[in-house]
Amino acid sequence: MAEIIIKTIEAPVEAIFKEKRSKFLAFAYPVENEAKVKEKIVFLKKKYHDARHHCYAYILGIDKSAYRMNDDGEPSGTAGRPIHGQLLSKDITNVLVVVVRYFGGIKLGTGGLRIAYKLAAKEVLENATIIEKMV
Predict the structure, then answer these.
(1) For residue 51, what are the CA distances in angstroms to 23, 48, 92, 109, 135?
(2) Residue 99: which of 58, 64, 59, 39 has the closest Cα?
(3) Strands 95-102, 53-60: parallel, antiparallel or unpaired by DSSP?
(4) Reported confidence tier of residue 107, pLDDT bands at 50, 70, 90
(5) pLDDT at 1 over 70
(6) What mean pLDDT is reported for the chain?
(7) 85 C-beta neighbours (distance < 10 Å), count
(8) Is CATH 3.30.230.30 the classification given to domain 5-134?
């Protein structure tokens, strides 16, 4: 049987991104299945219960066929899709990225939101150690 190698992150990491008084807390987790994804999201929603949005994206599996994006109340396509795009750009799998947003009182607009979520996800993934793992 041939060896299958995937790229994923070694350990959980965090980053903070600020834009026009809004604070974006970004978290990246190595995950093996959807149960672990749900567990991490529930944990973050409890811990940061006072935040306005908990947006996320994940990719699972050797072939990266299991994925999901969630805007959690942000305008459609402004949060989950940019986060997912960063996962794709790093060519990693079995990773969940959640960006928790505290609204700062200044609306960013759809373009501004897309950029802010993209940069928050990019920053947290740059903080991660990407490893190759044999499956």
Answers:
(1) 10, 6, 28, 18, 37
(2) 58
(3) antiparallel
(4) confident
(5) no
(6) 93
(7) 17
(8) yes
Give the three-state DSSP class for 4.
coil
Domain ranges of the chain: 5-134
Kind plus residue range of the DSSP H or E element containing 57: strand 53-60
With b meaning 16 or more CB within 10 Å and e meaning fewer, what string describes 37-73?
beebbeebeeebeebebbbbbbbbeeeeeeeebbbbe
C-alpha to C-alpha distance for 59 and 31, rounded to whole angstroms = 9
Please count the CA atoms within 13 angstroms of the CA of 33 that sit on its side-chain side.
1
pLDDT band for position 26 (cuts 50, 70, 90)? very high
**Which pLDDT tens digit goes with each residue over 41-88?**
999 999 999 999 999 999 999 999 999 999 999 999 999 999 999 999
- Residue 40 CA to residue 96 CA, distance in Å, equals 9
Q: Which ranges in 1-135 belong to alpha helices (H)?
A: 34-47, 80-90, 109-127
Taking alpha carbons only, the member of 15, 24, 11, 14 closest to residue 95 is 11
